Amino acid sequence: MNIQDETNIHVGQVVPPLQRTIRLTDMVAYAGATWDWHRLHYDPEYVKEKKLPAPIVDGQVFGALLVEQLQDWLGPRSFVHRLSFSFRNLVFAGETVRCEGTVTEVAADRIVCDLRVVVVGEDGGTARIAVAPASATVLLGRADGPGAPGEATR
Amino acid sequence: MSERGSAASPGEARRSLLTDEVRALKGKTKVYTAPEPFGAAAGRYFALAIGDDNPLYFDAEYARAHGLPGVTVPLTLVCETNQYAGRPMDEDGYAGHTWDLDIPGTRQVRGGNTYVFHRRIRPEDVITATWRIQDVTERITRSGQPMLIITSKADYTNQDGQLLAENEETIIFVALESSS
Lengths: 154, 180
Prior knowledge:
The complex is a heterodimer of chains A (about 150) and B (about 180). Chain A has about 150 residues and is α+β, with helices and mostly antiparallel strands. Chain A has a domain at about 5-25 and about 60-145: Roll (Thiol Ester Dehydrase, Chain A). Chain A has helices at about 5, 25-35, 45-50, 60-75; strands spanning about 15-20, 80-85, 95-105, 110-120, 125-140. Chain A has a five-stranded antiparallel β-sheet with strand order 1-3-4-5-2, with helices on one face. In chain A, a hairpin with a 5-residue loop joins strand 4 and strand 5. In chain B, a hairpin with a 5-residue loop joins strand 3 (about 130-140) and strand 4. Chain B has a domain at about 10-35 and about 85-175: Roll (Thiol Ester Dehydrase, Chain A). A five-stranded antiparallel β-sheet of chain B has the order 1-3-4-5-2, with no helix packed on it. At the A-B interface, helix 2, helix 4 and strand 2 of A face helix 2, helix 4 and strand 2 of B. Strand 2 (about 80-85) of chain A pairs antiparallel with strand 2 (about 105-115) of chain B, so a sheet runs across the interface.
């Protein structure tokens, strides 16, 4: 079965962006949900001592947002098999980020996307790059990965 | 990213950071096994924290309709959580895996990650994370300062030895500019 034919995905196609404002409250929730209570991520006094303008968004969250972006686009019968990302600039509490992507390869059962995460400026444009380069290989037509029992691929 | 740094005496920053002690880190391994199953609540909590309302994380009927045995958790959570580590908080509040590296005269930044996912996490999975330092190299920055690049990788397996995910992480120690 050629999944790509069914979905009509093509090289150069833009992945629908995912935009999110990361409030301090979200960062506190993230700290709890990941068992990571490092004070850099929520304590204004601590970051002031470190001469930083505001608490720093934990960079790992951008990996989660990139997967969310891809899954929201491709639906439950897709599986992000590989995700790679490099950090470029810090992101601070209260800033808005946007996950962006383009399809670079299309095969019968998978696609590859170039991705990045940018900090959104007041004009809606790119204020700075948070994450780049980044890329993902997504398996199509299956809800689970190659390490799962075969029924998820039917 | 971390902004932690250690003091160095003036002039020390331009010395090579790749000492015999640092070279010996290659191959160092740490293994952690979670004291309990991953749990569906952990996934639902994380999904709420990042604003991901995908029903795969809370609606078992929906998940089964798409071929999964039940609810799963957001894919990257296994690479982000410190649940398995079972470590107390340090003075900064951190309670996760660490190599306890102290490279004098440097500041530490995170380079990036490469995740490979083999299958979705199930609430009943009990995670073992096996971390290993794969490589230690040195480069010179554009401003002429040495920087140390430490690449480590975690393999996440469950109680049946199934490989669930891999996480390759790069940590960079950049020499602080000399004050002299």
